[in-house]
Each structure stands twice: as structure tokens, then as C-alpha cells.
Design a protein that fits this description.
heterodimer, A: alpha/beta, Rossmann fold, B: Rossmann fold, six-stranded parallel β-sheet, globular
Chain lengths: ~325, ~325
């Protein structure tokens, strides 16, 4: 049986629609989520279906509306916030880091903050240095937050329900290059586990660990490697905090070689954290030093050829894997 | 207004004594905290509310049990006036497990779900958006509750003040903004940081009705807060009170007070809200020496019991360090 054909954007929208239908405490708020239909058209049509109380347009006041969502969550509702891009989320970093992430602990466990904050991330649409960055790791650094990155159609469809069921703040990163990706939903899936990473392609020679917008690139690299007789295993982290370290170690113990692919900048990256965990727990099981493919350490530029040069690409990923095998 | 404000004449004896007790309780609690700080029992930052007691006592008396409160890092007064038991507050200051936040918050982060007290926020203006959200939740659920949000005049320089006032009025949310204008943001005087020093005027630019109130007169504060809360409950949307007050002590325990005149502090001390109310009550023959002695004795007993409770409290085992980071405990 084949599943419904849809885009990643439509899958996200279906998840939002489920949330608003099934959870009376849920409401969506953010800049242009209502009449405009969402900056990336994810919430298109939801205003008509659910009305302005539950699909709530906000002023350009990231700190106030994200803080308001946190306050509403404290008071027992289940707000879902859309922040246009991770770059804009820096305007509400205070509310997320100083309030959402801390209140459970500071209050000695009296208050939870069940808020879901969705934001677009990543480059590839020539939007230059104030709309293209991948700052997921800034959030993944913070105890008290859960950080997830749906990279597949099924995850886009079902991760929101899991995020909404989480009693603590969940940050959802949607890569801008995935919105238009189309495919068929797996009809056997009706829920996903956001505690676990997923093996997206099995292999025995080298592990490619990645997440979000770098998953399709890593799968493309694995395809190229397969043509050369190299079987790459691709692990999609899915949840960036807490990391499913066991899934990574289990793959690496099998392949004994690992490349971590991350669109964030290399210095202080999530890829660095993944490599450190592998080094701590599986150092003697490696046949080659861990490798990383990350973005070049520049503000993401506008011109297409420069933007492409700044980002991890399948060729670089495949080359990094080959080097480990040639080692 | 002054100590013998006309409102005092219309007061019942019981009402007057409750207000006096409320303020005196905060004063004696904090004076003891200073001693305990000196003895090393309390550490970290300790921001005293001494001089400002009329604000918390007057405003919180206007709220009902089902209403919500968001406060600042100078919140011992709000916490006590809202009904957080003194013993649990003191145990929190001691960093004990029996504290209202199991020793995780300390002086600056007091929370108590039982009285809908949402902190203790130590990022200036950071509590305003939370209050917006708590009030939004009430509105969406059709509950006629008010969220009182305390902040200092220093917060009006932050973007979150402006964003929050705009949202509150745009969405007609039941928020009482209580601006405690004590004239100094730590050491920066209001006129050195604001082009427009009238906070009430800023509120009016967002169409939020605002009043300036003598924050050293607990009766004036209570009257203004009651009237604002009634308006909010009647559906008039958010209201702001600018409460003119003064902190008698340093900003925290590490402040040599280089930024203000001793003479200015002395002038404000002449307007101490506690003797002012007491004088008004005496003038109306509502208070006698025996009443004051009885109040002091009662508060003294409560304070001694609170200190004993804190002293006898236990320390959270360090093995439980990571509890309450997540609701479901499972972080590698």
C-alpha cells in the first residue's frame, strides 16, 4: 500500500492541523502565521479552519510573543510558536534560554513549560547572512530544552505530535531546503519516537552521522560511495538534545569509521560534540580518526556559487569518507 | 498624600492592622536576612525591598486567590504578601530542600504554584512577556482572572516592556502592570537613562490606561490597585500603575551607593510607609502601643520559627543535582 504524496511543508501542516484538532489547549502564534499563511506557507489555510484565536498573528516582537507562549505554557496551555528563522530567534534568546529552559529547575519542579517553538534554519535559498545560518547547536547546548530536527517526510508529519506531548520546551528546526521536498508518507507510521536517532541507510564500511537539511546530501554521498563499492551507513540524529549517543556508537562500532556532517560552523559545532562522544566512548574501536564536514567559517554569502562553496556538499562528504577508507 | 491621608479615616481597625502587619512582616524578615547574610547563612545576591513594602502589600491585597503574580528579583515582599509561607521562603534563602524551590532558586527566584506566584525573574523586564502569556491563557480559557506583573522603572528601557505593553493592549489582556519606580536602575538614575521619565505617559502611548500613585502610602496603593483590578475584571483591558517609591537600602549587598546622596535617602526615610500608616491609624484611634507590641511579638515568633525551620532543613543530596531539569528525568 502506498501512502499519500505530499511535500515536507504539507506534512508539517498536517501535523499542525492534527494538533489544533486533537489538543484543545494548543494554539499557533507567530509573525504572519494567519492571514499571510506563514513565511514559508506552512500554516496556509489554518486561520480559515481554526480562527484567529487559535491561529494568532503577532507583531514583530519575538521576545514578547515567544515569552507570551512560555507564560501561556506555564499557565497550562500548549502553545506552538513559529519564529520565522533561527536568525530572528536571537531576538528572543533571552526568553528561551533564561525562562523556558530554567523555570522547571529554578522553581524546584513546580512548573513545567510545555511550549513548542518551530523555526526555519539553514541556507541554500540565497538569503545571505541574516537568514541562512544554522544555530541549532546554540540551543542544543542548553539543559532544559529538547531540540529536534525533522529531516524526512514522516518526521515532518509526526514529530509535532511527539513534541506537543513533551512536558518541556521543544525547539523544532525545519530546514528551508526541505520545505519543497516531495515524497510519499509511509502509511505504516502514525507516530514517531523523538528519543531515538534513525538509521536511514544501512552500511558496513563507514558511518555518516547527520541531521536536518544535511540528510539528503549525506544520502546522495552514500549513493555515490555505493557506486564505488563503499557501503556507507547514514544515521539521522533527529534529536539534537538529548543526543541518542547509543545509536551513533552502535553504528560506529560496526563500521569503525565516521564522518559527521553538520551545516553549522565547525568551531564549537554539534559535529564537534558528536565526535567528542565517539572519542570518549569508542576511541579504540575506530580504524581512522573521526572526520567532520561542516560549513565554511564565513557568514553565509548571497551569490549562488559562494553559498554553495560555503555549505557541506555530497562531493565533500563522499571525499571525506573515502579518505578514511584509504587511510 | 501624607501619613494622615483622608483614606485612613475611613479604615476599619482590622483592615489597618492587616496592612501594618503585612508591611512590618516584610521589614522584619528582611532586616533578619541582612543579619543572616552577615553570618554567612544566606549567600548570593540579596536585594532588599525595605522602603518599598507599601507597594507589594497594597497591590497584592487587591488580588484574589485565583489571580496570578509575576515578580522581580527584589521579590521577598511580594512573596510574603502573596502568602508564600515565611518558613519556606527562609529555607529557600538558606538553600535548603524544604525551601519553596528546593534551594534551586534562592533569593532571586521564588516560585510557588499554590499561590500562582510565577517568580522571581532576575532578567530585568523578562517577566513581562510571561505575564502576557499567563493573561492570554486566562483569556483563552474564559477565566476572569488578573495577572499582576511587577517590574522596576529600569525595565521600561528594555524592549520587552514596550513589546509587552503593545501586545497587552492589542489583545486586551487582563494584566495589571505594577511599575515600582524607585528612581534607580541599580545605580542609574531614571533621568540619566530615559528621555521621557514619566512611565505612565509611555503606557498611554500604547493606549494602556495608567495612573501615578504615591507608593509610600499603602492606602493610596491599595485604592489605586483595587480600582485598576476592578477595571480589568470588567473587561477594560490592561492597566498600569506607576508607584513612586524608594529603596532605603543599597541595591544589593555589594553596593557602596556612590550614585545617590545620603541626604536624599534621609528625605525618603522620612516618608517610611510603616510609621506613616501607624501614625495615621493612631490619629484615628485605631492603633495603640499594645497593638504594635502584639504585632511585633507575633512577627518575631513567626520569624524565629522560620529561621528554626530553615536551620533544621536538609540539603538536597548532590546526587539529585539534575532533578527537575526535565519533567521526565532522563538526560545523559
Amino acid at each position: 500500500m502506498s501512502g499519500a504524496r505530499m511535500s515536507y511543508r504539507e506534512a508539517l501542516r498536517a501535523g499542525l492541523r492534527d494538533a489544533l484538532r486533537g489538543e484543545p489547549r494548543a494554539f499557533l502564534l507567530g509573525e504572519d502565521v494567519g492571514r499571510y499563511g506563514g513565511c514559508y506557507a506552512v500554516s496556509k489555510g489554518l486561520l480559515e479552519e481554526f480562527g484567529p484565536e487559535r491561529v494568532r498573528d503577532t507583531p514583530l516582537s519575538e521576545s514578547a510573543f515567544v515569552g507570551a507562549a512560555i507564560g501561556a505554557a506555564l499557565a497550562g496551555l500548549r502553545p506552538i510558536v513559529e519564529v520565522m528563522t533561527v536568525n530572528f530567534s536571537l531576538l528572543c534568546l533571552d526568553q528561551i534560554v533564561n525562562n523556558a529552559a530554567t523555570i522547571r529547575h529554578m522553581s524546584g519542579g513546580q512548573f513545567s513549560v510545555p511550549v513548542v517553538i518551530r523555526m526555519a534554519t539553514g541556507a541554500g535559498r540565497q538569503l545571505a547572512a541574516q537568514h541562512s545560518h544554522s544555530l541549532e547547536n546554540w540551543y542544543a547546548h542548553v539543559p532544559g530544552l529538547r531540540v529536534i530536527a525533522p529531516a524526512t517526510l514522516d518526521d515532518a508529519r509526526w514529530m509535532l505530535a511527539a513534541a506537543l506531548a513533551d512536558p518541556d520546551p521543544v525547539i523544532v528546526f525545519e530546514h528551508v531546503l526541505l520545505y519543497n521536498a516531495e515524497g510519499e508518507l509511509d502509511p505504516s507510521i502514525t507516530a514517531v519516537d523523538i528519543d531515538r536517532a534513525a538509521v536511514r541507510r544501512a552500511g558496513t564500511d563507514v558511518t555518516l552521522v547527520t541531521y536536518g537539511g544535511s540528510l539528503p546530501k549525506s544520502l546522495a554521498a552514500a549513493e555515490r560511495l555505493a557506486a564505488e563499492g563503499i557501503a556507507a551507513e547514514v544515521v539521522d540524529l533527529r534529536t539534537l538534545r538529548p543526543l541518542d549517543v547509543e545509536a551513533v556508537l552502535s553504528s560506529v562500532r560496526k563500521t569503525r569509521r565516521v564522518v559527521v556532517v553538520d551545516e553549522g560552523w565547525r568551531s564549537g559545532s554539534l559535529a564537534g560534540e558528536v565526535v567528542a562522544r565517539i572519542a570518549e566512548d569508542a576511541f579504540y574501536e575506530l580504524d581512522a580518526p573521526p572526520a567532520r564536514v561542516c560549513s565554511a567559517e564565513v557568514p553565509i554569502p548571497y551569490a549562488k556559487h559562494l553559498e554553495e562553496a560555503a555549505l557541506p556538499q555530497p562531493d565533500q562528504i563522499a571525499a571525506a569518507a573515502r579518505r578514511l577508507l584509504e587511510g | 498624600m501624607n501619613a494622615t491621608s483622608p483614606a485612613a479615616a475611613a479604615l476599619s481597625r482590622e483592615h489597618g492592622l492587616e496592612l501594618l502587619e503585612g508591611m512590618l512582616r516584610i521589614r522584619r524578615f528582611e532586616e533578619k536576612c541582612v543579619e543572616l547574610y552577615g553570618a554567612g547563612k544566606i549567600r548570593g545576591f540579596l536585594h532588599l525591598y525595605i522602603g518599598e513594602e507599601a507597594v507589594a502589600v497594597g497591590v497584592l491585597r487587591a488580588l484574589a486567590a485565583e489571580d496570578a503574580v509575576v515578580a522581580t528579583y527584589r521579590e521577598h515582599g511580594h512573596a510574603l504578601a502573596r502568602g508564600i509561607p515565611m518558613r519556606r521562603l527562609m529555607a529557600e534563602m538558606y538553600g535548603k530542600r524544604e525551601g519553596c524551590c528546593r534551594g534551586r532558586g534562592g533569593s532571586m527566584h521564588v516560585f510557588d504554584a499554590a499561590v500562582r506566584f510565577y517568580g522571581g525573574n532576575a532578567i530585568v523586564a523578562g517577566g513581562l512577556p510571561l505575564a502576557i502569556g499567563i493573561a492570554l491563557a486566562a483569556k483563552l480559557r474564559g477565566e476572569n482572572t488578573v495577572t499582576a506583573c511587577f517590574f522596576g522603572e529600569g525595565a521600561v528601557a528594555e524592549g520587552e516592556f514596550h513589546e509587552s505593553l503593545n501586545l497587552a493592549e492589542l489583545w486586551r489582556l487582563p494584566v495589571l502592570f505594577a511599575c515600582e519606580n524607585n528612581l534607580y536602575a541599580m545605580g542609574t538614575a531614571l533621568e540619566r537613562s530615559e528621555s521621557e521619565t514619566h512611565v505612565a505617559r509611555k503606557a498611554e502611548s500604547y493606549r494602556v490606561p495608567a495612573a501615578t500613585v504615591d507608593g509610600m502610602d499603602v492606602l493610596a496603593v491599595e485604592a489605586a490597585a483595587s480600582s485598576a483590578v476592578s477595571a480589568i475584571r470588567a473587561g477594560a483591558g490592561p492597566q498600569l500603575l506607576e508607584l513612586a517609591t524608594y529603596r532605603f537600602r543599597a541595591h544589593s549587598m555589594f553596593d557602596p551607593e556612590l550614585y545617590r546622596d545620603k541626604a536624599e535617602v534621609e528625605r525618603w526615610k522620612q516618608r517610611d510607609p510603616i510609621p506613616a500608616l501607624a501614625a495615621g491609624l493612631r490619629d484615628g484611634a485605631l492603633l495603640g502601643d499594645a497593638d504594635v507590641a502584639a504585632l511585633e511579638a507575633k512577627i518575631g515568633r513567626e520569624l524565629a520559627e522560620a529561621i528554626d525551620f530553615a536551620e533544621r532543613g536538609s540539603l538536597e543530596p548532590a546526587a539529585d543535582l539534575a532533578r527537575d531539569v526535565y519533567t521526565r528525568q532522563a538526560e545523559p
